[in-house]
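Subject: Sanity check before I submit

Could someone independently write out the C-alpha cells for this chain? I want to compare against mine line by line before I put it in a report. The sequence has 160 residues.
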Amino acid sequence: MRLNSIRQATVRAVALGLCGIALATAPAARAQDKMTAQSLIDRQMILDQITRYYYNFGKADRQSEESFYAEDCELILGTRRYKGKEGIRQAYNRGSVAPAAAAAPPRERTAFNVTIENPLIVVHGDTATSQVIFTEYRQEKVGDPMKMTTQGKEYATWTR
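---
Independent answer below. Compare away.
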C-alpha cells in the first residue's frame, strides 16, 4: 500500500513537471516561427555578433563600430537617431577629428567591460529580433575596482 502511494506521488510529480515544461516552452514556441536546426544556428550567430560588438568596446585596437551594422541601419539612442554607416560614425564620435583634439595627450587606459544578459532572440526565417540587457563596468583609474556605470536594454532587428 505504501509503495503504491509513493508511486502515485512520483507519477503526479512527473506529470506536473512535464506540464510545467510544456507551459514554459509554449510562449517561446509561438514566438518562434518554427524551430529548425537553421534557426538555432542563426540564433547563435546573432548572439555571437552581439557578443563581439560589446567585446569590441574594451579593446585598445578596436574594430570600427559601423562594421557591425548593415548599410541601411538606424541607431536610436534615446531621442537621437543616426542613419547609415556615416551616422554610426557620428554616434560614436569617429567622424572627423578636430586638430586640437588630435594634439591632446592620450588618456590613461583603464579597464572597461560590458556584459550582456537575458538574450531573447527570435528568428523568423530571414529576419530576427533580439533584446539584451547590457551592463557597463569601468575603472576610474588603473588599479581601482570596477564599478557599474551604465545599464540598459538593446533592441535590434536583424536581416539576412
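---
OP: Matches mine. For the report I'm noting this point. Helices lie at 2-31, 37-56, 84-91, 99-103.
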